[in-house]
Amino acid sequence: MSDQPANRWDQRYDHPRYYYGEAPNAFLATHLPALPPGTLLCLAEGEGRNAVHAASLGHRVLAIDSSAVGRRKALDLAARCGVALDYRCADVVADDWALDPWHGRPWDAIALCFAHLEPADAAAMHARAAASLRPDGLLLLNSFSKAQLGRPSGGPPRLEWLHDLAELKTQFPGLVWEHAIEREVELAEGAGHRGLAMVIEMIGRRA
Ligand SMILES: C[S@@+](CC[C@H](N)C(=O)[O-])C[C@H]1O[C@@H](n2cnc3c(N)ncnc32)[C@H](O)[C@@H]1O
After folding, report:
1. Taking the domains of the chain in order of start, what are their residue ranges?
2. Distance of alpha carbon 197 from alpha carbon 199, whole angstroms
3. Sheet with 60-65, edge to edge strand ranges
4. Ligand 1 pocket test: which of 7, 9, 125 has the largest number of ligand atoms within 8 Å of its C-beta?
């Protein structure tokens, strides 16, 4: 279970501005347009910037996050953008999201954008994400690497919550990596992610 309880995120999000901005994460904005419209699960989706963008591209999107304030703001953003969005306020560790809620089928794609959990929970979530993709389905992940520790540009202040590329590659059984790198990027995502940061980018396809 997260040691960042919902109320801490609710407090962070309880402001008219969006803490990570309203624009999608640059990695997802780059790669989502290449996906044929389909079902997309956004785990730990916060205020909904990526989910709303994906919906605008024609995807049928379910966002899940434990923050009720995040949910309210995501649905508000979706309404302002004129797109449909399903958003479940739930703990991604305990919730059952193996199948899409509309057809009861494994997902065409799953997005993890800065979803940093306690290590055992993260490993379990990653394995479940891999198992919840249909054959040929895609996993898109963008997160902070361990080299981000101590940088002021965002991310959890605990080494064990940050990601290691080699370890991540082992945590999604059945995925073939089409893109898996660690690199330095300039983040400009609201007030929450700003400045030079060490991130991991991964795109994996279910065999
Ligand atoms: C760094 S924010 C990223 C939000 C969003 N993905 C984005 O990039 O804008 C991390 C999010 O994880 C959510 N979160 C943390 N632990 C969670 C859990 N166990 N279940 C559901 N959501 C969780 C928080 O509520 C928060 O919205």
Report:
1. 6-206
2. 6
3. 86-89, 60-65, 39-43, 107-113, 133-144, 193-206, 175-189
4. 9
If one residue of 13, 15, 66, 112 were mutated to test the ligand 1 pocket, choosing by the most ligand atoms within 8 A of its CB, it would be: 66
Q: Give me ligand 1 centre to Cα 18, in Å.
A: 14
Find out whether 99 and 132 touch, Cβ atoms under 8 Å.
yes
Residues with a CB atom less than 6 Å from ligand 1: 2, 4, 9, 20, 25, 44-46, 49, 65-67, 70, 91-93, 113-115, 117
Gap from CA of 43 to ligand 1 centroid (Å): 7
Atom of ligand 1 lying closest to residue 21 CA: 9
CA distances from 156 to 31, 77, 148, 189 (A): 25, 26, 9, 16
User: With a cut of 50, which residues of the chain have pLDDT below it?
Assistant: 1-3
Cα–Cα distance for residue pair 48/77, rounded to 1 Å: 7
Q: What pLDDT was estimated at residue 3?
A: 44
Which residue's CA is the closest to the ligand 1 atom numbered 14? 44
Rg (CA), the chain: 15
* CATH dotted code for 6-206: 3.40.50.150
